[in-house]
């Protein structure tokens, strides 16, 4: 399914008379769940407008379908394109992930592994409600046989192991190592977190996500959807989270605001949120609870292969990120009071680092 043709919108640098060009404030602004989202001009925020436009132009050349940049909650830049689906650009994979158009003009896409970071917050909310504990074994909620390990090996796997990618399972859910002793990026194992939360809450994934999260912050374009074919045919995770760049920006703003939305707690367990956004184990210091962390000395990839240096060298060290296939992104940077989201097709080699080189050039200088 192709999105409807979209004009390139370099929108909202305080140009519309109906939008208030508000002075930046120390406290973040929260857009209403319905209605107009306020904007701020880059110059008001201390950013270089031309260099910021160059960063967005780069994203457009790299097959983006949408980029949203928030400064203290207000839209500082927003632009949409028709993502490149030419041969060699993973066109079929991208087209299968397009789920429609959002009311504001962007596309709605299955955001791949960006949904991991959303799942982590649902676990935190469930724990705060007393529905589960991270130390609980997964089989407490899913029963025996959810993996292909022996009952004894499986019983050692806790919810925390799923959140930290240390289940000890391979991608086919067979046993590889004792839980907690090996880091492996494992979407098939992690995907059970949503099933665990649904079983603990006795609600469907969409019902609990809407009640606990999306309806509270105005994410009206967001929902879980079964992937093509369902079951094993849907891939390692048969359930995908479909959403828009603006909705992801709302979620990023919630994280930036320490789990509160306009003063109301949404992720009320702030200790959990802090733990999620800090190294969760020593096997991969650049990984929290299903969140990627910048500024660490090394990054583990795939089955645990270690690469020296931070996740995104050109980005601020306090950046945390939700990252998905085809270069879906949520970047949250507290030091810049910034949220950036990116949807679209695969961005090509070193997209994160090249994009952040351009963003850093546009950012206010100390």
Q: How would you characterize the overall build of this protein?
A:
This protein is of the alpha+beta class and 366 residues long. It is 30% helix and 17% strand. The protein is built from 12 helices and 14 strands. It has helices at residues 49-61, 91-97, 114-128, 139-142, 151-155, 159-164, 187-190, 192-201, 205-217, 245-256, 270-276, 351-362, and strands at 64-71, 74-80, 98-101, 107-110, 223-226, 239-243, 260-261, 264-265, 292-293, 298-301, 305-308, 320-324, 328-333, 338-344. It has a 6-stranded antiparallel β-sheet with strand order 2-1-14-13-12-9, sandwiched between helices. The N and C termini lie far apart (45 Å).
In short:
The chain is α+β, with helices and mostly antiparallel strands. It is built from 12 helices and 14 strands.
The neighbouring-strand order within the major sheet is 2-1-14-13-12-9
- Spans where pLDDT lies below 50 across 5 or more residues: 1-24, 230-234
Strand content: 15-25%
CA radius of gyration: 20 Å
- Taking all residues together, what is the mean pLDDT? 91
Structural class: alpha+beta
Number of strands: 14
The description of the largest β-sheet is: 6 strands, antiparallel
Topology:
Blueprint: H1 49-61, E1 64-71, E2 74-80, H2 91-97, E3 98-101, E4 107-110, H3 114-128, H4 139-142, H5 151-155, H6 159-164, H7 187-190, H8 192-201, H9 205-217, E5 223-226, E6 239-243, H10 245-256, E7 260-261, E8 264-265, H11 270-276, E9 292-293, E10 298-301, E11 305-308, E12 320-324, E13 328-333, E14 338-344, H12 351-362
Helix pairs in contact: 1-12, 3-8
């Amino acid at each position: 399914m192709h999105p409807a043709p979209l004009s390139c919108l370099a929108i909202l640098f305080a140009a519309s008379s109906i939008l208030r060009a508000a002075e930046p404030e120390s406290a973040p602004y929260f857009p209403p769940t319905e209605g107009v989202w306020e904007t701020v001009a880059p110059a008001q925020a201390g950013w270089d407008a031309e260099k910021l436009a160059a960063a967005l132009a780069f994203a457009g050349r790299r097959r983006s379908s949408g980029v949203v940049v928030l400064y203290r909650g207000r839209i500082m830049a927003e632009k949409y394109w028709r993502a490149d689906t030419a041969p060699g650009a993973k066109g079929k994979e991208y087209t299968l992930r397009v789920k429609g158009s959002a009311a504001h003009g962007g596309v709605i896409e299955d955001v791949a592994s960006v949904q991991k970071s959303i799942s982590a917050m649902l676990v935190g909310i469930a724990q705060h409600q007393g529905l589960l504990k991270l130390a609980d074994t997964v089989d407490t909620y899913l029963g025996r046989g959810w993996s292909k390990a022996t009952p004894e090996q499986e019983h050692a796997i806790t919810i925390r192991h799923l959140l930290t990618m240390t289940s000890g399972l391979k991608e086919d859910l067979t046993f590889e190592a004792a839980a907690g002793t090996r880091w492996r990026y494992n979407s098939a194992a992690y995907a059970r977190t949503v099933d665990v939360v649904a079983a603990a809450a006795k609600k469907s994934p969409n019902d609990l996500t809407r009640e606990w999260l999306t309806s509270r912050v105005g994410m009206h374009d967001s929902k879980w959807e079964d992937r093509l074919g369902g079951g094993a045919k849907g891939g390692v995770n048969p359930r995908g989270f479909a959403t828009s760049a603006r909705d992801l920006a709302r979620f990023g703003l919630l994280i930036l605001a320490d789990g509160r939305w306009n003063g109301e707690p949404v992720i009320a367990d702030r200790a959990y949120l802090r733990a999620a956004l800090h190294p969760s184990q020593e096997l991969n210091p650049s990984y929290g609870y299903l969140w990627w962390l910048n500024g660490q000395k090394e990054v583990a990839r795939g089955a645990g292969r270690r690469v020296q240096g931070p996740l995104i060298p050109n980005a601020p060290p306090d950046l945390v990120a939700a990252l998905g296939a085809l270069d879906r992104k949520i970047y949250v940077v507290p030091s810049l009071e910034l949220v950036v989201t990116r949807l679209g097709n695969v961005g090509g080699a070193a997209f994160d680092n090249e994009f952040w080189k351009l963003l850093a050039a546009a950012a206010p200088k100390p």
